[in-house]
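Reviewers asked in the last cycle whether our approach scales beyond single polypeptides. To address this, we selected a multi-component target totalling 437 residues and predicted its structure end to end. The input consisted of the following lines:
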Amino acid sequence: MAPKSAGIRVKEIPEEREPSAEEVLPALSSVAEPVTPPPEIDPDKRALLGEDNPVNGAVAIRVLEKLGFEVDTVTSGWEAVQLAGQNTYSVILLDCDSPAIGGYHTVMEIRDRENPKGIWTPILALTAYTMQWDRQQREAAGIDGYIAKPIQVDAMKAVLSRFAEDQSRPATMQLLALDRNMLTSLRKLTDGDGNQLEELVHLFIETSGRLLDQMETGLASGDLPSVAMAAHSMRGSSGQVGAKRMEEISSTIEALSRTGAGSGLGDWIQELRMTGCAKISRWSILHSCLPPKPPCRSAQRPFPAAMTPTRRS
Amino acid sequence: MAEDDPLIARFLGGSLTGAGFTVTHVGDGESALEALKQQSYGCVILDLNMPKLDGYGVVEAMRQQAKTQSTPVLILSLRSQENDIIRAFDLGADDYVSKPFSPLEVISRIRRLMVRANQLQSRG
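The resulting structure, written as structure tokens, was:
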């Protein structure tokens, strides 16, 4: 079977070559099922729906089928993770407000299994929470978009077709993978001591805030050496915690302020602040989603029992 | 450990403590020299960019005093240019690690520096 090059299901990390069909779809050869689909169903359009509310589920299934999707339905997060690992879906929809589906944890489990294969299946949340903070949290957890509940048929169609067209999403994927690796290695260094890890993360937040303030004050008063000094420190601490983008921006700010080129500095500092905020929001979610202790190699990785989405107001 | 970045200090300090070292942390070069007057240390870790007195200044001063002349010095810096590294060694540094660093590697290097210093000392 040829790789589904144009499909929205395979998102690769840019530097890597295109994975072969066997690598991307290891489970496909073992699936004996593909019987001839009913004529109106496009075989390339397969959706996984995780929804334990029968009413919402029925509406979602109807819309998906109308749009030509073949739908697999599950009523628990664990089933969703298993099916997502076995099959290839063009889109996954999860009820993120349901404890049984366990939105964020489920998504992170799916992403963890996809990452090594270079796959990024679009995941959409079915949710009643649509505020800015909710959206940021979802993005941090690896969710691409959302369909607001109660489901409006036209809105759902619009979101689905937008994701069918938009095929670029590797940036988030890399960021998440990086953050996840960073937190895991920090955790290893701190011997799985969650408090120490938390302390480091807090220290990073505090230090970054102080340095950003120093940069802004320095810029406002024309004290470029002070901006350079703060940017230098920021480069050090962000590099140390694996915050690559922050490290790059800090490096630019440091270079610009050392050469006395004040123009454009304000924008870079602003950009650094935004990047920092996004990172911190991803971290707080990733951190809260990490299992309490480093998973034992020999044992099956525990799936969080309480799959309640983390919410902060 | 002389390091003005609290995050790096906490990060490395925690790792060193975890590996069994007793760590004194100072945030600038002058305090580093002050601490070295008060007590002897098995190894000194220096950042280069520090307030008051930079890492170059500290290692230079250390090498001029009998008490700290042969104390191992590891430089830990964001600077990774050839001339920065050469200058550090010329002034008397024993090892140089660029940031971002792996704490495990730094610990390993420190252990080695300390073993070597002890061997040299026992040979007189």
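Residues 6-114 of chain B form a domain with the Rossmann fold fold (CATH 3.40.50.2300). We regard this as preliminary and will revisit it once experimental data from Aim 1 are available.
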